[in-house]
């Protein structure tokens, strides 16, 4: 790795100007992993930006704005709650030391299909605030993902924040080869809204699910929604959950690599879908106190 100059941006406007000729950098937790070969210009440190706003704030329309440049540990500690799927993903992200440096924007911009923080953004319909010397634009998170290691960020752009839609219930599960500092073999985020108990079932009825969203990581070139499994998940009863777990095989396109085979990833994701039921039932019983 060759040496590079480091410029520190103290305002968003300064970051816009500097990123026009350099590479934006926030937590830098993957800097040594990816190296600097082929990087043009200087590195632009976004962590020095003075922002009086908190890392999480509630907008007037009910959405939650989450900083893309604050350490994710600050997001987890925020008094303003974020969807449980995101707090669950942060809790399973790397290690405490890395969480004190890593950022939401960096996790998105890396373009990894196994990114821990992206599935929760997908199931909360996150819209990214992107900016640069040429102006600002809003990009749905699904349109930001272009393939392994690729995004639709234009040269000189950086991610300032993500706006997340409020969801009544959500969660995140990750399968790795150890409890910490592990890249996901597969991951699954979900969100849903409860309906009325159905009649003609056991006492209390089976709760109907509405607006079910499932997003899977490490099973396709990008994090993907699972529409067939979503359509099958009408309730949390065993039959619907088993049907959804079977249907999810048709929603994904896993590959063989050094961490797992394609068939293992497909079966493991089906297992996570099945494990969703007890977690979601527990949310119904105890309430999602961390949800907006």
From TrEMBL:
Record-linked PROSITE patterns: FAD_PCMH
Pfam families documented for this protein: CO_deh_flav_C, FAD_binding_5
Boundaries of every FAD-binding PCMH-type domain copy: 1-169
One GO MF term attached to the UniProt entry: oxidoreductase activity
Designated name of the protein: Carbon-monoxide dehydrogenase medium subunit/xanthine dehydrogenase small subunit
Organism: Haloactinopolyspora alba
